[in-house]
Model the fold of this input.
Amino acid sequence: MTTIHALATALADAFLAGDGWRRADLVGQGGLVLGVRRRWLWPVADAVLVAYPRPPTDRPRELATFLSTFDPLRAAVATARQHQRPIVIHARPATPTRTVHRPWHTPVIDTVGDLAAMLDLSIEHLDWYADRRAMNRRAFAHRLHHYHYRWTDRGRLIEAPKSRLRALQRRLLTEVLGPIPVHPAAHGFVPGRSAHTFAATHTAQPVVVRIDLLAFFTHIPATRVHGLLRTAGYPEPVAHTLTGLCTTRTPHPAPRPPPSTHRPTPPDNPARRAAHRPPAPGRAHLTRTGQPVRLPTRPTPHRPRPRVRHHLQPVRRRPRLLRRPHHPTHRRPDRRRHRHRPRRGLPSPPSQDPRP
Done:
């Protein structure tokens, strides 16, 4: 049974693969996919032309999502499922994506093949490094991962890319992400800016506020990176692949932190012994002058544990009244009857007398 998602994806690819962007062209491409021009293709073509006056050659997934939410198309799929007449896809015409606009001086990368050629990789190797299906996250072997994982003394997980992926990311930073302008307040990792340019803006100011953002990098999701690349003009497949190269997902199960070697000496007061615990690694503490801030807890009073004496209780038989009642039919098997007896007709083995 053809799903609504598969049908919408096939129609979107066929619409973009046509020679024109008119009503008759879209209906003809739809008939090529279905093998026959169905009646609901005309309202579908009209809705597409109203929503997209120009062909979205860089957004095939967006066009497929729009078609999957169109009511006449969903009603046609539901009717075919109800009458047991499935909609069969006879052909899948497709066309390569193309860049439509470039707001900045970024390189033109129309397809994933162009991106692989720019990075001197095959499409298979590019897909392996991008890991768009999150298969690397579910791998248990460390050699299959693209990152090294290390815990710091403060309980922070460092995810460092390996040599090959690191070289690819540096090349993308220079050639693909470098032409995108950044905010004027950003000074780190920006060519021509440094810590001196950052401090120069705060020189001779009456008040300087020092703040630190907690978990800054982990709060930037991949969807935001994908949106930035789409704003730069890269087509959807290219932006998806670039997002996979520039972001990572911590594998599952996550690497556990090693046991902490720095454990504070417990105080001498036994009443505060339960409230004094070392901070758990990986927990985010609010820091001030490098010291963790802990929430106060109520100390529990120290109570000596009672001594428990163990006595050996003699094993006694149950009283006669609690025993299982004896029934004449329930007899215990006579073990003497199940002893080995010689067969009839065979001489019995001679008995050996142990006496001299």
Summary: Residues 262-302, 308-312 have pLDDT under 50 and may be disordered.
